[in-house]
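queue> pop job 88
queue> type: inverse folding (structure -> sequence)
queue> payload:
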């Protein structure tokens, strides 16, 4: 049995190559396998009550994957933190908290989206704290769908503009924060996305060998991590021409 990890697909109707790549990828996990989606699965999510043929298509693919014996798990990202139990249930997914520790081939492994580790980006961390508050989320979901779409588009544009002026190091994880999380959760390995900097990092902390595996985004290539018999393979692949 294999365990698969993906993140940062940023699925959207206009992203035809990413969508085609996702549909192809979903044929890979087989019965008995597990698939973990570690956030930013959709480019943005404004509520489970929004209906669209594209959303229904993705939901049906996820459900079909679950029905053929693949356990599918989902963790919120910074783009789709409003995705809720209603969608997950219809799609056959199990919603995970961030962080979550899983047993992977007998070893505890920390799963995160990764945005909470970027503590040097103070402006984003302030927004994250506000947007994850239940009161803020309820107020947002009480707005009309048109108002929510307008807010999401404005927030995305402002984020892109702001990020273009930030130093690259600010938008990466804070190394000390990684050490804190691994120590707190009693693990030597972490898997996350968010930063769009796919790599496998190894280092020493307090005499222990630690590892951090960063998943890649799907803007130009597809990325997944496949774990089988304690072998960790971070794979890049070409997206199809849609």
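queue> result:
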């Amino acid at each position: 049995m294999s365990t698969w990890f993906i993140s940062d697909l940023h699925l959207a109707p206009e992203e035809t190559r990413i969508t085609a790549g996702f549909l192809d990828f979903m044929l890979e996990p087989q019965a008995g396998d597990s698939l973990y989606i570690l956030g930013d699965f959709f480019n943005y999510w404004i509520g489970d009550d929004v209906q669209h043929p594209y959303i229904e298509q993705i939901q049906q693919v996820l459900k079909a994957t679950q029905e053929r014996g693949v356990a599918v798990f989902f963790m919120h990202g910074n783009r789709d933190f409003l995705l809720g139990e209603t969608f997950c249930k219809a799609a056959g997914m199990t919603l995970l908290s961030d962080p979550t520790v899983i047993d992977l081939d007998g070893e505890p492994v920390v799963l995160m989206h990764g945005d909470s580790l970027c503590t040097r980006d103070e402006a984003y961390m302030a927004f994250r704290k506000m947007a994850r508050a239940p009161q803020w989320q309820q107020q947002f979901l009480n707005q009309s769908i048109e108002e929510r779409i307008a807010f999401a588009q404005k927030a995305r544009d402002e984020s892109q503009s702001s990020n273009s002026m930030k130093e690259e190091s600010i938008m990466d994880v804070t190394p000390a924060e990684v050490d804190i999380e691994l120590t707190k959760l009693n693990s030597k390995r972490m898997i996350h996305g968010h930063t769009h900097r796919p790599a496998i990092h190894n280092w020493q902390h307090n005499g222990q060998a630690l590892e951090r595996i960063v998943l890649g985004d799907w803007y130009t290539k597809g990325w997944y991590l496949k774990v089988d018999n304690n072998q960790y393979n971070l794979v890049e692949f070409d997206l199809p021409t849609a």
